[in-house]
Amino acid sequence: FGEAIAVDSSGNAYVTGNTFADNFPTVNPVQATFGGGGTDAFVTKINAAGTAFVYSTYLGGSGMVGSTQPETGFGIAADSAGNAYVTGETNSNTGFPLANAIQGTFGGGVSDAFVTKINAAGDAFVYSTYLGGGAQDAGEGIKADASGNTYVAGFTVSNNFPIANAFQGTFGGVQDAFVTKLNPTGSALVYSTYFGGTGGEIAFGIAIDASGSVHLAGSTGSFNSLPTANAIQCARNSGQDLFITKFNAAASALVYSTYLGGSGTDSGEGIALDPSNNAYIAGTTTSTDFPTVSPIQSANSGGPFGDAYVTKISDTSTGPVSSLQLTQTAPSVQEDVTSLTLTVQRTGDTSGPVTVDYATADGTASERSDYTTAVGTLRFAAGETSKTIDILVNEDSFVEGNETFTVTLTNATGGATLSCANAVATVQITDDAAEPATNVIDDPVIFTGQHYHDFLNRQADSDGLAFWADQITACGSDSACVDARRANVSAAFFLSIEFQQTGYLVFRFYKGTFADSSGRPRGMPRYREFLRATQEIQRGVIVGEGDWQARLEANKQEFARRWVTSPEFVAQFPETMTAAEFVDKLFANYEVTPTQAERDAAIAAFGAGGTEGRAAALRSVADSGSVYNRQFNAGFVLAQYIGYLRRNPNDAPDTNYAGFDFWLAKMNSFSLPGEDVRDETVALSRVNRAEM
Fold first, then answer.
1. 311 in Cβ contact with 362 (< 8 Å)
2. Dihedral sign, CA of 674, 678, 682, 687?
3. pLDDT, tens digit, for every residue of 21-44?
4. Run of H or E residues at 617
5. What angle do CA 231, 237, 241 make, to 5 degrees?
6. Are 159 and 129 in contact (CB under 8 A)?
7. How many Å is the Cα radius of gyration of the chain?
8. Chain centroid offset of residue 352 CA
9. Phi and psi at residue 574, in whole multiples of 5°?
10. Those residues with Cβ within 8 angstroms of residue 178's Cβ, 6 or more apart along the chain or in another chain
11. Distance between CA atoms of 94 and 99, rounded to whole angstroms?
12. Cα distance between residue 282 and residue 440, in whole Å
């Protein structure tokens, strides 16, 4: 099995891997016979024309008793003089070919890494050595610089791996990556260091720039304990992410180090550099949300083994870096129907636009009851130095002690990096000293304030809170009146301009874009998708205050532009579609037959097409009376699941859409022919008839 290949400046090719064969082709070998055990590594040099072996040799020992695969060569490199450098894994505690070894005995345990340098003719070792401790060690990648120094990367499970002048001198936990630099004769370790957190790492790829700085690519299982610096992503997004790391020339400090990955399994398998030290990383991903920028393939193909990816990372060792960080990392807030504002500060180079994603995640506090999920993207224009994130906190009637959740920054773009120590805020909700015996939601102020959180994604403005709470308070002790007024207040938030032109608009965008499928049931948004999109359109809008109409229109227009240029939308509506094709498919997805005037208006809005035309046509169709009325009931029912239950319709305790379909059928049964629910009075009448 061939595992790695390298080419020297003369065009000769060098290959390593392993072989089970005792008759493997050998030419001018430094080891002519099979070492024994299950497999040997091999090293083969082929001339530039590919017509002859310069040499081909075994490289292996006898293996441990019972071993089926003693040696494998995983990495190979060559220098301008034609010397070959090989690394891999051996469990031969005797018999492995050694020469001028810095470690002349097997370290013990399952296996050691090995590092071997063979001269240009292939007839002698310059050196060959074990490299390992008392558990399991393997070399995965190797490079050599112009002076003949050797750089090796791989993984170790040994807490006594050979260390010298280390960046990280102690074993991180389950399994660490390692980086080792040997001098040209292999007689000394220039440095050798662990690199890892508490969850397990392996370095597969290694590259060296002209200054002698090491660049690594590999995989990590550590959540946030991997050493990071100037990171694009500060924590693992799934069970396994890739990492990309650059050390300084002495390997005493990080130039940058970052996680990168989505919600699946991601691995960094190889890395290469261009003359500007930009890094190119390749590997595999099963993530459907792997970070992409200017992709030639925008979506995961969905195959059983995942996709390959290629990522380019700009070098951050020159020029001022645009750094993003939270100004508070341990804020606290008293339990109530209240809010907390976090500030993201931008320092360094602020001359260009950058973005960063943010998201909340449960700790001991739950998004279902203690706080409202916040997820979105902050967009900094050139010159902007701060943005804010509003976090909504809820009241309850339980004595449960202080609780926490996190707000995390990820996926910085535009050359921005994250200061990982300041990229996560752990928010503490301080529990009330005493809780009422009654359910707090029975309080009209809390009831109303919670609706602002659930439907408008903001803290209540004082005038609005007083107006709607007073609708209920005016009933006094009349319980029937209270029940009716609570239902009316609740319906008013769904029917409000603020929700209809944000949350319900998001629903219509999804329904128009996606047909019903197993991957997207009913073509509807999922819980976090809905909140992300709705919160983005709602940002900064309070109906009745300031220039709210202009702000809302600007938010809707910008959202529509981004929507029609998203890879998911383009996959459904290719940019080659004509105006008629585009508009007709939208109406078909909405399951309506438009009036002639509606179709004509949408085609006119499309105009010459492009981003502006496609966005305008989408909005024209989504806002048409036919679509608005056809989708109203489904939008209302989904809003109840997301707003009140804070979950998807098929999330536990449900396993399908039976509950959603029941409530939708009820709404449909109380709908009257010819009703136009764009009229708020008509819409409220329907909701009341259905007793929703």
1. no
2. positive
3. 999 999 999 999 998 878 999 999
4. helix 610-622
5. 75
6. no
7. 31
8. 23
9. -55, 150
10. 137, 152, 153, 154, 155, 156, 161, 192, 193, 194, 195, 203
11. 14
12. 54
